[in-house]
Amino acid sequence: MKLIFVYDANEGFWSKTLDFAHKIIKPSTYACGLCKLTHGNFVENEEWRTFRETAVVEMEFCYKEEFYDKYPDMNNIELPLVLFECVSEPVIEFITARDFNEIKSTGEFVKLVEARLRNM
User: Fold this and answer.
1) Rounded to an integer, what distance in angstroms lies between the CA atom of residue 41 and that of residue 31?
2) Which of 34, 37, 59, 95 is geometrically suited to a Cys-Cys bond with 80, CB 3.0 to 4.6 A?
């Protein structure tokens, strides 16, 4: 089983530079809720990094263009997103963009991921 984390951001130096500036200048309008929870302005969030490094589930991370290339039939799904992939089942939405609008902190996000994994 694997969790696929999809950022609502583009890959590449200039995209990352613009995202960085946006998070500092106007953080309340920054679109990627996953980025806000997993990364600060300069580095990965410590609480998130600890969780990621100790998690018992495989994790994959991708930017939106990678996601849409890999899953073209899911191009109408709002991002950010976390998918659950299991060998014997189709990929399912695990945490939706709507969920990200409700999550207020990294700790809350980690607890949600853990709780939903227990129910899988």
Assistant:
1) 14
2) 34
Q: What is the DSSP letter of 1?
A: -
- Torsion from C-alpha of 6, 100, 18, 40, nearest 10 degrees: -100
- What is the token pair recorded at 63? 């930017």
Q: What is the pLDDT of residues 33-72, one digit of tens each?
A: 788 888 776 778 899 999 999 999 999 999 888 999 998 9
Give the integer Cα–Cα distance in Å for 38 and 49.
Answer: 8
HSE, CB side, 13 Å, CA atoms: give it for residue 91: 15
Report yes or no: 38 and 45 within 8 Å, Cβ to Cβ: yes
